[in-house]
Design goal:
The chain is an alpha/beta fold. The chain has eleven helices and ten strands. The chain folds into three domains: about 70 residues, no CATH class; about 60 residues, no CATH class; about 170 residues, Rossmann fold (3-Layer(aba) Sandwich), CATH 3.40.50. The chain is about 35% helix and about 20% strand. Strands 7-6-5-8-9-10 form a six-stranded mixed sheet, sandwiched between helices. β6 and β7 form a beta hairpin. α4 crosses α6.
């Protein structure tokens, strides 16, 4: 009975996984998963999955296979499309809330978008201790006694001393036979990563643009958390000036002011210099803007900062340009013209929510 329950539970998980993957693109372009996110789980609403079965109604109520009928009668034609009347007595569609871990969600994301595994850098610089029970000792607490090794030692002793009787195989370990599990400290290289989100909050960036940034950031977080044990996030907002803020402010700050993108890049570079050595950290800056910068001088300052400082320090520098009715959209063209040969610089245009999937693949598809 237990095995059958386990088998059914496994099958149910496979069905749920298949259903989530089928609709994953829909979830990516909608913000409902973000609101359902807990500490380590995401609740996903799915239509209830039922095993197909026949449902029988009361006898002598008419319908297909009951009572009188004539050849050619259209099934269900009588009373079809009527409105009003008494409350219905048939079951409706039910929604099932399914909890999915962020790791499972990341696996589905990787499968759907065909994302390669990230190859971290700097892993040899950060080392953590890990205890592994891989050794056997002659002394230790009884809770760690290795029963198989203990009885093996007792059997060997009795055979060697001639006291073992195959007709009556009674094996009684003595103190010298006892063996205990013991641990060994191993040192495991780890890779830490930091995401530095930068967003333009000038007057041309409205609520719709920030919503697209919010959804894309959620899935970027999900994938990078799956690849790194320790993931830090830093948030920068800018209009004509830049400042570091917390996550809530990043997503809810109202738009105003002009735009100097170089102010954000300067602050990003200062954070890296102060806290994140490129030899020890995997660094991922993501900048989102509508591409409307103050002027060509500031754009040139951005290009210089990227070429001389940022691109050399980071795994990837990702620039996502969201479409705005008020933005010129020129910045992404300037970046591509000046730094189009730089593999570390990745650019993406996000004209609508439907472009979020392709933008994520563009940013994460190189596996850096």
């Amino acid at each position: 009975m237990v095995r059958r329950i386990e088998k059914d539970a496994t099958r149910f998980k496979q069905i749920v996984r298949s259903r989530i993957r089928k609709d994953l693109r829909k979830y990516i372009t909608r913000g409902e998963l973000i609101g359902r996110k807990g500490k380590h789980l995401v609740s996903i609403p799915l239509p209830q999955i039922e095993t197909p079965h026949f449902r029988y109604g009361p006898k002598e109520r008419g319908g297909v296979g009951q009572g009188e009928g004539e050849e050619g009668t259209v099934i269900g034609s009588e009373g079809a499309g009527r409105s009003g009347g008494a409350a219905g007595d048939q079951p409706g569609e039910h929604i099932l809330e399914v909890d999915v871990t962020l790791d499972e969600l990341a696996e589905l994301l990787g499968e759907e978008l065909e994302l390669p595994r990230i190859e971290p850098r700097g892993a040899s610089k950060i080392v953590s201790e890990k205890e592994k029970y891989s050794q056997i000792r002659r002394s230790g607490p009884e809770s760690l006694r290795h029963f198989k090794r203990t009885y093996k030692e007792a059997l060997k002793r009795q055979i060697a001393s001639g006291t073992y009787d195959p007709e009556h195989p009674v094996i009684i370990p003595v103190r010298a036979d006892k063996r205990y599990r013991s641990w060994k400290v191993t040192y495991k290289p780890e890779s830490n990563a930091v995401i530095i989100y930068m967003m333009d909050v000038s007057g041309s960036m409205g609520a719709e643009q920030k919503e697209m940034v919010r959804m894309e950031a959620f899935w970027i977080d999900t994938w990078l958390q799956h690849n790194y044990k320790n993931l830090e996030r830093r948030y920068i907002v800018h209009d004509a000036a830049a400042r570091e803020v917390d996550e809530d402010t990043f997503y809810h700050l109202r738009e105003s002011g002009g735009t100097r993108i170089s102010s954000a890049y300067k602050l990003c570079n200062e954070l890296i210099d102060a806290h994140y050595s490129p030899d020890e950290w995997n660094i991922y800056p993501f900048h989102f803007s509508d591409g409307d910068n103050w002027g060509s001088d500031d754009t040139q300052a951005c290009v210089d900062l990227l070429r001389d400082e940022l691109i050399k320090a980071v795994n990837m520098f990702c620039y996502g340009q969201v479409k705005s009715a008020y933005g010129s959209g020129k910045f992404i063209k300037d970046l591509r013209e000046a730094l189009g040969e730089e593999e570390t610089l990745v650019t993406s245009e996000i004209n609508s929510k439907d472009d979020i999937v392709d933008s994520i693949r563009t940013f994460l598809g190189k596996g850096k």
